[in-house]
Amino acid sequence: MNRQVTRVAWTAMALIVALILGTTYWQTWARPGLAARQDNEIQRVAEFQVRRGLILAPGRVLARNRAVKRNGKTLYFRRYPQGKLTANVVGYSTAARSRAGLEKSMNGVLTGTQQNLSSLVERQLDEARGKPIVGDTVVTTLDVHAQQVALEQLGRTCGAVVALDPRSGKLLVMASSPSYNPNFVETQFSKVGKITANCRPAAPLVNRASQGLYPPGSTFKVVTASAALESNRFAPDSEFVDPGYCIAYGKRVNNFDTERPFGRLDLATALKYSVNSVFCNIGKALGAKRILEQAKKFGFYERPPLETPDGERYPSGLYRNGELWYPTHDSDVDAGRMAFGQERLLVTPMQMAMVAGAIGNAGILMRPYVVDRIVSPRGTTVSRTEPERLDRPVGPLNARDIGDMMVSAVQGGTGTAAQIPGYRIGGKTGTAETGVAGLNTTWFIAFAGKPNARPEVAIAVALERQSLTGGATAAPIARAVMEAILSARGNP
Amino acid sequence: MSARNRELATLLLAGIIASTAFASAWISGLAAIDYGWLPWAAVFGAMVIVAHAVARWTVPDADPTLLPLVALISAIGLVFVYRINPDDGRRQLVWIAVGFTVFCLALVWLRYDYRVLERYKYVFGVSAIVLLMLPSVPGLGQEVNGVKLWVDVGPLRFQPGEIAKIFLVIFLAGYLRDKREALARGRLKDFGPLLVIWGAAMLVLVQTSDLGSALLNFGIFLAMVYAATARFSFVLAGLVLFAGGAAVLYDSLSRVQQRVTVWLQPWTDEKVVCSINGRLEYRQNCDSYQLVKSLYSIANGGYGGTGIGRGTFETVDGTPLIPYLQTDFVYSAIAQELGLIGAAAVLLLFLAVVARGMRVALIAHDGFSKLLATGLAFGFALQTFIIVGGVLRLVPLTGITLPFVSYGGSSVVSNFLLLALLLLVSHRAVRTAPS
């Protein structure tokens, strides 16, 4: 019988060996695939055992940790001391709803997974000793006080304010209204869902500053004017005749105020008073593609560069059926209407702040950034963002000319509400029709700084569902925010 | 060195490993250096020493490795059951004590000649059927998770199927020893009583939906018939019957279909009908939830494991990730915390038990002893394969216990009985060896 018993024995032992092989498969080959799966809660628990790095702004803590002991494990949950003030930039990191904002895009830094070799070894040692992994701290460029002013100014109005330092590209303010309290996302999300504002849906989780796509209205005239001067076919003193309207594609396009045509005027005056018919004619003369090429140099047709998640920044440009679209022929687009910001143009406040900043900064567009530096748990700076030139959409002389036109618009044109004594401010208003009377999107874009110096701030304000003009609604908000930023830096 | 002295030496080695495991689980649970684990190690150690002393008296020439192997496996099992649920850990310690008692009683009772069991083979066969049917008796049986496998005796809940498995092996060993030549010649009428008792057992198991045990008993049956008759054609015929039976079951039992679908495709990219609530869900979030979470747990162990007490078995908000972790899925806890190295080591302990058990069968002199040891050792291996293979997605998952490791009284007690029988057989084989 022993021969059979031996065979049964081999079979029995083969069964156990198969189990060892099976275990090997799951713990080696299949391991990375399983770890990457969305429904793998073990990975999520591991993430919550990491003491995430802080998120700071000058003088403020934007995100910190709260340690909770549970089943012999220490889990770290996020607290956001600034509440709704910086919610749309900082975002949130929760178990219930994953992550958003910098918490999402900087996750690798904040959890210490993006580190050099020596800290990797240290990390393994800490893990073996049972110490929590501590991530790196992210220091942002945000001016929280100005951010607060922006949100207060927006109030219950849906819209956004973006302010940059055009000399470096530092993001100072990125306010989206309505905002939400990120501390509620984990446990009281229904409260976030109940937030209301003067638009519906209020969509507080949407960062309108970089995800809000609005028709730019007359603020786009700055882009058109840039294209006009850069083409060398027009100059600031080029003469036009304004009949109060312009015929584009056989249709009459009216000025904002058709009752009082300007008659003979030059390009500078047209920008100062935002005369549609002039820009309509420039558009027809240049063609749509030439203007769009200029817009591209300002950053249109790309997601504006910033450290927030890609999905939270939308590119500006012509949109067709909800998708970004670039025309193949000039005749695909009504260049006359596009030239003063109508047609199918949709832009983000972020993009328009970049436009204003580049004009103010002698035509140089700096790459916007919000992460100033990354600091290790021991306090040493791991990396620091160096200001970087993104493009030069306009030559220095043309930039100065357009800047002067914008300054005159604030001094005595459409944007007088943005004046701040002692500062040189150039601005452009916008009132974009949405098709519903009395529910316009209003704009103000501007740069401001001490006289005879490069501007310190560039701003874009966009407001939804407004019955008045951009000069009356958006310009005062821009003024308040710019004042908050400038006064903190010392009076002239 | 005598067999029992070697056993003692090996037990000391096992004791060191087990104590380290006890200490790890205890200290990681408190996150502080503490000696609260010492009573556990002492109580467990005392039980092992008593068992060793009884073996020294009753079966001095028995295999010296089996007791230390089993002691170590059950200590590891105890550590993990405690680590997952301390209350279950305390109960498991009591059950292990009962198991050691049964082990000692069996050794004492059968110390002269265990082959008396052969005389009562039909008693064992019939009582196996009775035991299997007990849970279906109204008022006595308890239904847990839609399966009727338990009997309440006073405060204790008992799963008679585990004992019935050993009784069936005793019956088969006795009957096959008796009839093996006739069977080998293929005389059909000799299969009668065999098929009646075995068939009844299988019917009961299928009726109670205990598919894991049905598969286990079927496997043991085939292995023993083959060992007795040397007719591989019987195994083939059995496998054909199994395939036919499986096909019939597949059509009639939705439970079987569900197990097979989960096995073949635990993850879906699209939502499918969930058999639990009838809604559309991803299968990994519904029918195969348990299996998938258990695979994540195993994978998380990697090469070295997280360390005892450092594995993740709860979500961020503290709810358990894997239902029945301490029973059916205890292996996925072991694999996560001990890693590939540790889990493979535990499996090698099982392999060693199987190898030593089979060696007992080889050195035994009479047919009953050989068949008994073969059946017990093969059953041990197959049971391990069915549950761990199910957890590892090698075979469809059916809930049976991992011998000596899973939380559960009947399993622990009946496996200690299995150990006693193997020691008795090996003692006799050595003692009566014609040297």
TL;DR of this structure?
The complex is a heterodimer of chains A (492) and B (435). With 492 residues, chain A is an alpha+beta fold.
Summarize the structure in words.
The complex is a heterodimer of chains A (492) and B (435). Chain A has 492 residues and is of the alpha+beta class. Helices cover 36% and strands 23% of the residues of chain A. Chain A is built from 18 helices and 22 strands. In chain A, helix 8 (144-154) runs antiparallel to helix 18 (470-488), helix 11 (221-230) packs across helix 13 and helix 12 (267-273) packs across helix 17. Chain A is elongated and about 115 Å long. In chain B, strand 1 and strand 2 (147-153) form a beta hairpin. Chain B is globular, with a radius of gyration of 22 Å. Chain B starts with a helix and ends with a helix. At the A-B interface, helix 1, helix 2 and helix 3 of A face helix 1, helix 9, helix 12, helix 13 and helix 14 of B.
Topology of this protein?
The complex is a heterodimer of chains A (about 500) and B (about 425).
Chain A: H1 2-29, H2 31-35, H3 41-48, E1 55-57, E2 60-70, E3 73-79, H4 87-90, E4 92-93, E5 99-100, H5 101-105, H6 107-110, H7 117-129, E6 137-140, H8 144-154, E7 159-165, E8 170-177, H9 189-193, H10 208-211, H11 221-230, E9 239-242, E10 245-248, E11 251-254, E12 263-266, H12 267-273, H13 276-286, H14 288-297, E13 317-320, E14 323-324, H15 335-339, E15 345-346, H16 349-360, E16 365-366, E17 371-375, E18 381-384, E19 389-391, H17 396-412, E20 424-432, E21 440-449, E22 457-466, H18 470-488
Parallel strand pairs in A: 1-6
Antiparallel strand pairs in A: 1-2, 2-3, 4-5, 6-17, 7-8, 7-22, 9-12, 10-11, 13-14, 13-15, 16-19, 17-18, 20-21, 21-22
Helix pairs in contact in A: 8-18, 11-13, 11-14, 12-17
Chain B: H1 3-30, H2 38-58, H3 66-84, H4 86-109, H5 116-119, H6 121-133, E1 141-144, E2 147-153, E3 156-158, H7 160-184, H8 191-207, H9 211-229, H10 232-252, H11 254-264, E4 272-273, E5 280-281, H12 289-301, H13 330-363, H14 367-391, H15 409-431
Antiparallel strand pairs in B: 1-2, 2-3, 4-5
